[in-house]
Input
Amino acid sequence: MNINKLILGFFVFISATLPVAAHEAKYAAPLLGSSEVPANASPATGSVLVTIDFDLVTMRVEANFSGLLGNVTNAHIHCCTDPGTNVGVATQLPSFIGFPLGVIAGTYDHTFDMALASSYNLAFITSHGGLVSTAFNDLVTGLDTGKAYFNLHTNLFPGGEIRGLLSPVPEPESYALLLAGLGVLTVFARRVRREAV
Output
Protein backbone atom coordinates (compact mmCIF):
# COMPACT_ATOMS: atom_id res chain seq x y z
CA MET A 1 0.00 0.00 0.00
CA ASN A 2 1.25 3.47 -0.86
CA ILE A 3 2.41 5.21 2.36
CA ASN A 4 0.94 8.55 1.23
CA LYS A 5 -2.52 6.99 0.88
CA LEU A 6 -2.14 5.40 4.30
CA ILE A 7 -1.24 8.73 5.91
CA LEU A 8 -4.07 10.54 4.11
CA GLY A 9 -6.51 7.87 5.26
CA PHE A 10 -5.20 8.18 8.82
CA PHE A 11 -5.80 11.95 8.90
CA VAL A 12 -9.28 11.57 7.37
CA PHE A 13 -10.11 8.96 10.03
CA ILE A 14 -8.80 11.16 12.87
CA SER A 15 -10.63 14.27 11.66
CA ALA A 16 -13.88 12.30 11.25
CA THR A 17 -13.70 10.72 14.70
CA LEU A 18 -12.79 13.83 16.71
CA PRO A 19 -15.81 15.50 18.27
CA VAL A 20 -16.83 18.80 16.80
CA ALA A 21 -15.44 21.36 19.21
CA ALA A 22 -17.61 24.26 20.27
CA HIS A 23 -16.17 27.65 19.64
CA GLU A 24 -15.12 28.13 23.26
CA ALA A 25 -12.09 28.62 25.43
CA LYS A 26 -11.48 27.46 28.99
CA TYR A 27 -9.30 28.98 31.69
CA ALA A 28 -8.52 27.51 35.10
CA ALA A 29 -6.64 28.31 38.27
CA PRO A 30 -6.06 26.97 41.77
CA LEU A 31 -7.11 29.50 44.43
CA LEU A 32 -4.49 30.09 47.14
CA GLY A 33 -3.49 32.73 49.66
CA SER A 34 0.08 32.51 48.41
CA SER A 35 -1.14 33.79 45.02
CA GLU A 36 -2.43 37.04 46.53
CA VAL A 37 -0.38 40.23 46.13
CA PRO A 38 0.92 40.55 48.76
CA ALA A 39 0.78 36.85 49.64
CA ASN A 40 -0.93 35.74 52.84
CA ALA A 41 -0.82 32.59 54.97
CA SER A 42 -4.48 31.60 54.58
CA PRO A 43 -4.89 27.81 54.64
CA ALA A 44 -7.89 28.12 52.30
CA THR A 45 -7.89 26.41 48.91
CA GLY A 46 -10.16 26.34 45.92
CA SER A 47 -10.31 26.20 42.17
CA VAL A 48 -12.01 28.08 39.37
CA LEU A 49 -12.90 27.23 35.78
CA VAL A 50 -14.00 29.97 33.38
CA THR A 51 -15.52 28.98 30.03
CA ILE A 52 -16.00 31.56 27.31
CA ASP A 53 -18.48 30.60 24.57
CA PHE A 54 -17.77 32.82 21.58
CA ASP A 55 -20.90 31.76 19.68
CA LEU A 56 -23.25 32.63 22.54
CA VAL A 57 -21.02 35.41 23.94
CA THR A 58 -21.25 33.96 27.44
CA MET A 59 -18.87 33.34 30.32
CA ARG A 60 -19.49 30.45 32.72
CA VAL A 61 -17.77 30.71 36.09
CA GLU A 62 -17.44 27.52 38.16
CA ALA A 63 -15.69 27.87 41.51
CA ASN A 64 -15.27 25.99 44.76
CA PHE A 65 -13.47 26.99 47.93
CA SER A 66 -13.04 25.88 51.53
CA GLY A 67 -11.10 26.65 54.69
CA LEU A 68 -11.34 30.43 54.53
CA LEU A 69 -10.34 32.29 57.68
CA GLY A 70 -12.83 35.08 57.00
CA ASN A 71 -16.34 35.22 55.60
CA VAL A 72 -16.73 35.87 51.87
CA THR A 73 -17.56 39.49 51.07
CA ASN A 74 -17.19 39.37 47.27
CA ALA A 75 -15.63 37.56 44.33
CA HIS A 76 -14.87 38.63 40.77
CA ILE A 77 -12.31 38.62 37.95
CA HIS A 78 -9.65 41.30 37.75
CA CYS A 79 -8.04 42.20 34.41
CA CYS A 80 -5.62 43.04 32.78
CA THR A 81 -2.17 43.13 34.38
CA ASP A 82 1.07 41.22 34.60
CA PRO A 83 1.31 38.37 37.14
CA GLY A 84 2.38 39.51 40.59
CA THR A 85 0.55 42.84 40.39
CA ASN A 86 -2.92 44.12 41.22
CA VAL A 87 -5.47 45.70 38.90
CA GLY A 88 -9.11 46.77 38.97
CA VAL A 89 -12.14 44.53 38.66
CA ALA A 90 -13.35 43.62 35.16
CA THR A 91 -16.58 41.82 36.07
CA GLN A 92 -19.64 42.63 38.16
CA LEU A 93 -19.37 44.70 41.31
CA PRO A 94 -19.49 44.34 44.20
CA SER A 95 -19.56 40.58 43.52
CA PHE A 96 -20.72 37.98 41.01
CA ILE A 97 -24.49 37.69 41.19
CA GLY A 98 -25.50 34.79 43.44
CA PHE A 99 -21.98 34.17 44.76
CA PRO A 100 -22.19 32.66 48.28
CA LEU A 101 -21.44 35.48 50.73
CA GLY A 102 -20.83 35.31 54.49
CA VAL A 103 -19.46 31.75 54.33
CA ILE A 104 -16.04 30.09 54.67
CA ALA A 105 -16.70 27.33 52.09
CA GLY A 106 -18.92 26.95 49.07
CA THR A 107 -19.42 26.36 45.38
CA TYR A 108 -20.56 28.58 42.54
CA ASP A 109 -21.74 27.98 38.98
CA HIS A 110 -23.21 30.78 36.89
CA THR A 111 -23.27 31.74 33.22
CA PHE A 112 -23.09 35.43 32.32
CA ASP A 113 -24.31 37.07 29.13
CA MET A 114 -21.19 38.98 28.14
CA ALA A 115 -23.12 41.05 25.59
CA LEU A 116 -24.74 42.88 28.54
CA ALA A 117 -23.04 45.80 30.28
CA SER A 118 -24.34 44.45 33.61
CA SER A 119 -21.85 41.57 33.38
CA TYR A 120 -18.93 44.01 33.73
CA ASN A 121 -17.60 46.67 36.04
CA LEU A 122 -18.67 49.85 34.23
CA ALA A 123 -15.22 51.37 34.85
CA PHE A 124 -13.71 48.42 32.94
CA ILE A 125 -15.97 49.12 29.95
CA THR A 126 -15.08 52.82 30.05
CA SER A 127 -11.34 52.20 30.23
CA HIS A 128 -11.47 49.56 27.46
CA GLY A 129 -12.94 51.45 24.56
CA GLY A 130 -16.30 52.40 26.05
CA LEU A 131 -18.13 49.50 24.38
CA VAL A 132 -19.20 46.12 25.73
CA SER A 133 -17.66 44.47 22.66
CA THR A 134 -14.22 46.01 23.24
CA ALA A 135 -14.42 45.19 26.96
CA PHE A 136 -15.23 41.58 26.08
CA ASN A 137 -12.35 41.39 23.59
CA ASP A 138 -9.91 42.86 26.12
CA LEU A 139 -11.10 40.49 28.86
CA VAL A 140 -10.58 37.50 26.55
CA THR A 141 -7.15 38.80 25.56
CA GLY A 142 -6.29 39.14 29.26
CA LEU A 143 -7.43 35.56 29.88
CA ASP A 144 -5.50 34.26 26.86
CA THR A 145 -2.27 35.96 27.94
CA GLY A 146 -2.42 35.10 31.67
CA LYS A 147 -3.20 38.66 32.72
CA ALA A 148 -6.51 38.04 34.50
CA TYR A 149 -7.14 36.59 37.93
CA PHE A 150 -10.06 35.39 40.02
CA ASN A 151 -10.06 36.94 43.49
CA LEU A 152 -12.12 35.92 46.51
CA HIS A 153 -12.30 38.61 49.20
CA THR A 154 -13.23 38.09 52.85
CA ASN A 155 -13.85 40.34 55.85
CA LEU A 156 -10.40 39.42 57.25
CA PHE A 157 -8.65 39.93 53.90
CA PRO A 158 -10.41 42.84 52.16
CA GLY A 159 -7.82 42.82 49.35
CA GLY A 160 -8.43 39.11 48.76
CA GLU A 161 -7.92 35.94 50.80
CA ILE A 162 -7.37 33.53 47.90
CA ARG A 163 -6.62 34.23 44.26
CA GLY A 164 -5.80 32.35 41.09
CA LEU A 165 -4.14 33.53 37.88
CA LEU A 166 -6.34 32.18 35.08
CA SER A 167 -4.52 30.19 32.39
CA PRO A 168 -5.81 28.63 29.15
CA VAL A 169 -6.77 24.95 29.38
CA PRO A 170 -5.84 22.89 26.29
CA GLU A 171 -8.79 21.09 24.71
CA PRO A 172 -8.69 17.27 24.40
CA GLU A 173 -8.72 17.64 20.61
CA SER A 174 -5.32 19.35 20.84
CA TYR A 175 -3.88 16.33 22.61
CA ALA A 176 -5.44 13.96 20.04
CA LEU A 177 -3.90 15.90 17.16
CA LEU A 178 -0.53 15.96 18.92
CA LEU A 179 -0.64 12.19 19.41
CA ALA A 180 -1.68 11.71 15.78
CA GLY A 181 1.25 13.83 14.64
CA LEU A 182 3.64 11.83 16.80
CA GLY A 183 2.23 8.62 15.32
CA VAL A 184 2.86 9.85 11.79
CA LEU A 185 6.42 10.85 12.70
CA THR A 186 7.01 7.37 14.13
CA VAL A 187 5.76 5.76 10.89
CA PHE A 188 8.08 7.97 8.83
CA ALA A 189 11.05 7.30 11.13
CA ARG A 190 10.55 3.52 10.86
CA ARG A 191 10.17 3.75 7.07
CA VAL A 192 13.36 5.81 6.73
CA ARG A 193 15.23 3.40 9.01
CA ARG A 194 14.08 0.35 6.96
CA GLU A 195 15.06 2.03 3.67
CA ALA A 196 18.49 2.93 5.08
CA VAL A 197 19.22 -0.70 5.97
